[in-house]
Amino acid sequence: MEIARVYDADDGSSAARLLIDRLWPRGMSRETLRLDEWIPEVAPSTALRKWFHHEHAKWDKFQERYRAELVGNPEAVERCLVWCRKVPVKLLYSARDREHNQAVVLRQHLVSAMTSGRGTG
């Protein structure tokens, strides 16, 4: 499972392209993104996103809180897992920070769900 910024050049891979941001990325058209699905419900809540504000000092707590949101939102997680079970997946996000963003946490959550056989739990 790959993760990539929506602003990166499309590498032409055959992976399903899932946008996991709650808000549509600035300056991007649907045609440019070539999405297979937009799943805004799997993104961190607006309150959590605003609280984190990409402050590295809050990263550990952000991960903990976002994982709790994911556990509490099995329907949105399942929408991602349906894709993951069928084809390679690329999770797309718009944050500038490539190491401290929701895609990193979501990928870990999805991989864990797939390897443990827990589904959405």
Give the topology.
Layout: E1 2-5, E2 16-19, H1 30-33, E3 37-38, H2 46-52, H3 59-71, H4 74-86, E4 89-93, H5 102-116
Parallel strand pairs: 1-4, 2-3, 2-4
Range of strand content: 5-15%
| Topology pattern, helix = H, strand = E | EEHEHHHEH
Count of all domains: 1
Distance between the termini: 19 Å
Main sheet overview: 4 strands, parallel
Number of strands: 4
Ranges where pLDDT stays below 50 over 5 or more residues in a row are none
Mind telling me the C-alpha Rg?
A: 14 Å
The whole-number mean of residue pLDDT values reads 94
How many helices? The count is 5
Question: Which key phrases capture this entry?
Answer:
121 residues; single chain; alpha/beta; 43% helix; four-stranded parallel beta sheet
Explain what you see.
The protein is an alpha/beta fold. The protein has one domain. Helices cover 43% and strands 12% of the residues. The chain has five helices and four strands; from the N terminus they run E-E-H-E-H-H-H-E-H. It has helices spanning 30-33, 46-52, 59-71, 74-86, 102-116, and strands at residues 2-5, 16-19, 37-38, 89-93. The protein has a four-stranded parallel sheet with strand order 1-4-2-3. Strand 2 (16-19), helix 1 and strand 3 form a beta-alpha-beta unit. The radius of gyration is 14 Å and the shape is globular. The protein starts with a strand and ends in a 5-residue tail after the last helix.
